[in-house]
Each structure stands twice: as C-alpha cells, then as structure tokens.
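seq:
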Amino acid sequence: MNVELHVLGRAVKQVQYRQHRALDTALAAVGTTLAQWDALRAVARRPGASARELAAVTFQTEQSFGTLAGRLVAQGLIVRDPGRGRRLEHRLTPAGERVLAAGEQVADEVLTAHFAPLPAEDRATLLRLLHALTPDAATAPAVEGL
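struct:
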C-alpha cells in the first residue's frame, strides 16, 4: 500500500468535503442547496439540455438528476419542455435565474474565503495540477460541479 497516495487522496477529499459543507450551509440563506444551485447553474449554461447531459456535468446519475429536476420544477425554478423523442429539455424560469444569481454571490464569498490561505500563484498551480489529473476539465469551457 502506498501510504503517501492514500494520504493525498484523503486530503483532496477533505478539502472537497469542507468546501461542500460551507457552500451548502451558506446557500441555505438564499433558499437553496448546493445540489440545487449546481443544477440551476448547469441548466443556465446549457439551456435545452437533456437530463442525461445535465446529470453528467453535475456528477449525478440520470435518476438522481431527474428527481432533483422534478423538485426544481415544483419550486418553479426550471421548466422541462418536450424535445425530440422522449427527451425533456430544461430551461430556467425567471425565479430560477434569481436563485442562481443569489447563489453565485454566496459561492463567490465562500470560495474566496475557502481559498484565501493560498496566494493567487498557488491557486493557479493547484488548478493546473488538478487539471493534469482530469485532462478533460482543462479544456472545459466552464467549471461545473463544485
């Protein structure tokens, strides 16, 4: 067993866990959760996308995303329109746009505080190193799935 790699893997998970907890707690103040806000963000970046596409960019299964999307529809934050075949296309409502914008402000504050201990140069290095481990992320036009 390579202890160093296990420690590294756990450290990455710890940072992610702390970030998610902080975001989820702060997003509650604007009436949403991290999962909901991330879904709204994905729908905004891909209007008309299918549940399959949105599930992939939010790191969920299609079934989980479908359940989440149903809750967002019930809250009046997104609409699902019929597409070709059985495809449902997702779009934000004006209420969804407002929740997304409020969540973006919250996320900016939380992430600024979360990464404050690292100078800008170290943050750039960290991002470069993480992209080296996920090559497809380095070419992605927008960061998804906090």
